[in-house]
Amino acid sequence: MFTGIITGVGRISAVQPLGESATHGKRLTIEAPAGYLDDVGLGDSIALNGACMTVTAFDAASRQFAIDISAESLDKTAGLDAMGPINLEKALRAHDRLGGHLVSGHVDGMGHVSHFAQVGESWELRVIAPKALGKYLAYKGSITINGVSLTVNRIADIAEGCEASINLIPHTVTNTALHALQVGGRVNLEIDLIARYVERMMTAPAAT
C-alpha cells in the first residue's frame, strides 16, 4: 500500500529488453535521490509513477536500483518504457502518516493530459480519463495521477471520457515529476479505493 505522497523524484537511466519478442518485458535501472536507498532491501516495493514494482537489485553507493517489468504491465501503464524523470514512493509502513489517501499501486487505466498551464502561482492540470473510470471521479474526491495523490476540483463528462481538473500548488510541481507533463501525454490513473468498494456493494447480487 501507498499514500500518493511522492518521496523522491528519480530518473530511468537505462531500459534493457528481457527478450526479443513482444511477450518479453524490460529491466529498468532507476537513479534515486541521495540517501533514498539507505533503507531499501531486495524484494521491497517501490511505486514508479504509481505502479507498484519490486526491487530486484540495488546499489546504494551509486544510488541505483533495478526492477523487472512484464510486457503486460508495460502495455497497461505509461512512462515506464523510456528514460526520463519518474515519481518514486516507498511502500507504506504501519506507523507512517497517511498524508494523501490509500493507494494500492495498481494502475486502473491511462488518461491523457488535455491542459496544463500556470494560473497565478499554481498550475491547472486537466486529464481525460477513460469513460469506464469516469463514474469513480467526483468533485473534491481523490485520484492518483502518476502516483501523486490529488484532489479533483471539477469534472466534465465529454465524448472522449471524463475530464478532471486539478490544481497543483508550486510545491507539488517542484517536488514531483508532474512538471514534465505535456498536453497529449499519457498518465497513469488509479481511482479511489473506497469508490471501488462502494461500486461493488451497490452492484453485487443480493444474498439469497
Largest sheet: 6 strands, antiparallel, barrel
Distance between the termini: 34 Å
Query: What CATH architecture of the largest domain would you give?
Result: Beta Barrel
Tally the helices. Answer: 4
Mean pLDDT: 95
Radius of gyration: 17 Å
What does this structure look like?
The structure is a single chain. This protein is mainly beta and 208 residues long. It folds into two domains: 8-90, Elongation Factor Tu (Ef-tu), domain 3, CATH 2.40.30; 109-201, Elongation Factor Tu (Ef-tu), domain 3, CATH 2.40.30.20. Helices cover 12% and strands 43% of the residues. The chain has four helices and twelve strands. The protein has helices spanning 71-75, 131-134, 170-175, 193-203, and strands spanning 8-17, 26-31, 45-48, 51-59, 64-69, 84-90, 109-119, 122-129, 142-145, 148-158, 161-168, 186-191. The chain has a six-stranded antiparallel beta barrel with strand order 1-2-5-4-3-6. It starts with 7 loop residues before the first strand and ends in a 5-residue tail after the last helix.
